[in-house]
Amino acid sequence: MLIRLQSGYHFRRAVPSHIRDIVGKKELWLSLGTNKREVAKPYACAVFAETERLFRSVMHLKTELSENENFIRNELPEDAQELFDLLIQDYQHRIASLQTQYDHQRLRHSMESLEQVEKLEKARNLTGRSVHLLERTVTDLKKTKASLPALTDIQSQIKDMKAFLAPKEKPSPLFSEAIKIFLESKDTTVKSTVVKSYERTFKRFLEVCGDKPMRDYTGADVGHFKALMEQLPESYGKQRNDTRTVQEFVADAKKRKLARISGKSVKNHFTKLSGLWKHFLLRDLVDRNVFTGGWQFDTKSKTNRVRWSDNDLKTIAGQPWQFGTISHKTASMIVGIASYTGMRLEEICRLRPQDIQEIQGIPCILVQDHPALKGKPWTEWSAKTEAGKRVVPICTALQKAGLLDLAQRAMNQKRHYLFHDIDFKGQDNKRSAHFQRDFSKFKSRLGIGRSVVFHSFRHNVSTKLRNIHEHGEGGLRESWIDDFLGHESHDKSVGSTVYFDDVDIVNLKKVAESVKYPDFWDIRELLKIKLSFNRL
User: Which top-rank group of organisms is this from (predicted)?
Assistant: First the structure.
């Protein structure tokens, strides 16, 4: 097989399993020493022929020796081992001969190429001098009032010579055309929200740097784009219908002295643009990827997220829910599920009646992929990671709060989702968008700082579980906790990575019941119905 790496083309071929013990390798690799496919291809074919010859010879000899497929080479008689060694040595000599042969060819090709370059350079120099002389001749002829046909003929020659001297333009699509080609090349399995995020990034780059051939963009353009993006306000992208340009956003941020966007967000834009450039770099339509090579970003979080303290939990417990679009019962249940399971907000908001099932007699939440509803592609959803697909046993506190009854009512009413009073909102069409906005306002009005957010409930669960010593009373294994929360396991031992496929549901139930809160944290009374329509 011919493979291209950064170092050039390589030949790779797997050794048949039944002769690997003889050859001593699972596969054969050979650097072909060239980046030119037209040189590498015949070289690889010659190596393939020699490799095929070796394999056939070894298999023929093995058959002659009447050895089965499970024999071990070191257990053969010395004379048999010597025969195999001779075959391998002969193969190595033939490959070395091929290398020498193709090294000579490459050298000869390089010499010929150098001669061609030297001839071309001489021709260009001669043409340049000729243009200079012809231009002087035209000037002299004009002084002597020479005939028009003579001047026209000379000027035509000058034009042709200058065209020969002009550097040949390499093909490169306009940025606006490149966007369409790139997005069409994306796999159809890519989510529409991901495609839209690419489109938003490309739109901003066009606003800042203009539309021109891809090869014409330089590091200066990228630096200008980076500098402007770093000046965007922290609220950038939060309002879906805001049509302001990057320049207008930046001007407003400077005027009002607003907090700026995080370095991580700017880096995300660079990652998307780098993917676009890489796509065309592989096709020789750009000279280099101008978005790589040492650009630095401040990716430190501006706000250190922390878990909910008991005082913070006491602050929100029993408070009236002031947002009429989502009921206080729905808000209470969402917060309750998060505080006892550590599930992510979007995972909770997307729960369907069929995601609540009984496994081995234990009621569980199945965090699983959702196929799109007919005519509604945005309803398709998958867990954040492979580990995110998991089984979460429902603890006694959630059962008493009525989660199972809620699922049964949704099933009886043939509702697609558990929570009927939330819907898809925002640029990314998330079901959690509306609740996340309202909950942020709710906790902020109660004086809870920016470092504590809804996702902090996940921190709470993780902290509570990891504070239970593995070997103490009621101990929990780290792998159980990771499986419960949908984390990639930190345990890289062979026992965990190879033989430990699924955590027993009984152990997961033990994890779920280990999450405890003070008595005031009662999901049934967590948030009250709003007392009036006057906002706090």
Answer: Bacteria
The number of beta carbons lying within 10 Å of the beta carbon of residue 358 is: 10
Q: Which of 333, 351, 345, 341 is CA-nearest to residue 426? A: 345
Percent of the chain beyond pLDDT 70? 76
151-159: Cβ within 8 A, 24+ apart:
158/131, 158/134
Share of the chain above pLDDT 90, in %: 38
C-alpha–C-alpha distance, residues 453 and 532, integer Å? 26
User: What tens digit of pLDDT does each residue of 95-141 get?
Assistant: 787 777 776 666 555 555 555 556 656 666 666 666 666 666 667 66
Element (H, E) at 200: helix 192-209
pTM: 0.57
Side-chain half-sphere CA neighbours of 433 within 13 A:
12
310-514 CATH pick, 1.10.10, 1.10.443, 3.30.450, 1.20.81: 1.10.443
Output the six-digit token pair for 249. 């956003």
**Cα 53 to Cα 87, 88, 90, 125, 134, distances in angstroms:** 10, 11, 11, 53, 64
With beta carbons less than 8 A apart as the criterion, state whether 470 and 324 touch.
no
Three-state SS letters, 95-123: HHHHHHHHHHHHHHHHHHHHHHHHHHHHH
Look at 95 and 249; give whichever has higher pLDDT. Answer: 249
List the domain boundaries for the chain: 2-75, 96-165, 175-282, 310-514
338 close to 457: Cβ distance less than 8 angstroms: yes
Six-digit token string for 37 = 């496919």
Residue 160 identity (one-letter amino acid): D
